[in-house]
């Protein structure tokens, strides 16, 4: 069974986790990727953003959200008046999954499979336990399903503040699902402004939630129960 669990050390130090992740062979994606792209940002961030996987630019640079989607995210954060330096950013899958064009010169993003997402999930849990954010923003379907199960639909719950008891041991962050910044780029030109504004609104909701989380760790408009509990490490 593919799983990153054997490669995840028992530690709450991000630097140790990041170093260990470099050697992860928990699924076959490591074979073609340039390197592991671990999360980065404020170690004690109140808000964590989880995307899908690194893209071509991220794979080469070794850092999350530094390519075209990262530029959209930066613009959206600025519009929402949120400082990126105050956040922790990571991805559900740590290696770039891609196919190549006919000439083999361009690497084209390919959506990770459910098996690959589950295999990488121990890294996300370790990051959540270590950073202990109050709010987690799930950027896109892959990130949302990695935390809330395969039946979760962003379109049904987008922008809602959700709470899942027992998702992370000793920490119950509020969860907000929204679109991935790349969806703004991929969408029709006539709807891009609307998509961008929606992303900004969801980021504002997440940031505002850090000031309204109750003492029991829960927040918001509802409790979402996954159809099946995701596998833990």
Automatic annotation (TrEMBL):
Xref: CDD domains: UDG-F4_TTUDGA_SPO1dp_like
Top-rank taxon: Bacteria
Region described as Disordered: spans on this chain: 214-233
GO molecular function: 4 iron, 4 sulfur cluster binding; deaminated base DNA N-glycosylase activity; metal ion binding
UniProt entry tagged with the keyword DNA damage: yes
SUPFAM superfamilies, alphabetized: Uracil-DNA glycosylase-like (SSF52141)
Stored Pfam families: UDG (PF03167)
One GO BP annotation of this record: DNA repair
Recorded family membership: Belongs to the uracil-DNA glycosylase (UDG) superfamily. Type 4 (UDGa) family.
Annotated ranges, domain Uracil-DNA glycosylase-like: 38-204
Sorted UniProt keywords: 4Fe-4S, DNA damage, DNA repair, Hydrolase, Iron, Iron-sulfur, Metal-binding
Protein name per Swiss-Prot or TrEMBL: Type-4 uracil-DNA glycosylase
């Amino acid at each position: 069974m593919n799983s990153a669990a054997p490669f995840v050390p028992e530690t709450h130090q991000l630097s140790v986790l990041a170093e260990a992740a470099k050697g992860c062979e928990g699924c076959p994606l490591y074979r073609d990727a340039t390197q592991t792209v671990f999360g980065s940002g404020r170690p004690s961030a109140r808000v964590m953003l989880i995307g899908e996987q690194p893209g071509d630019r991220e794979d080469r640079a070794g850092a999350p959200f530094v390519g075209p989607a990262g530029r959209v995210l930066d613009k959206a954060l600025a519009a929402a008046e949120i400082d990126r330096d105050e956040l922790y950013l990571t991805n559900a899958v740590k290696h770039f999954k891609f196919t190549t064009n006919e000439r083999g010169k361009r690497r084209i993003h390919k959506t990770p499979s459910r098996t690959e997402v589950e295999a990488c999930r121990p890294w996300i849990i370790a990051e959540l336990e270590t950073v202990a954010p109050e709010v987690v923003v799930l950027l896109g379907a892959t990130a949302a399903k990695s935390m809330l199960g395969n039946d979760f639909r962003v379109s049904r719950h987008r922008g809602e503040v959700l709470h899942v008891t027992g998702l992370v041991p000793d920490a119950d962050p509020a969860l907000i699902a929204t679109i991935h910044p790349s969806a703004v780029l991929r969408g029709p030109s006539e709807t891009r402004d609307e998509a961008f504004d929606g992303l900004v609104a969801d980021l504002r909701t997440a940031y505002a939630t850090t000031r309204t989380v109750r003492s029991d760790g829960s927040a918001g408009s509802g409790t979402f129960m996954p159809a099946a509990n995701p596998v833990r490490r």
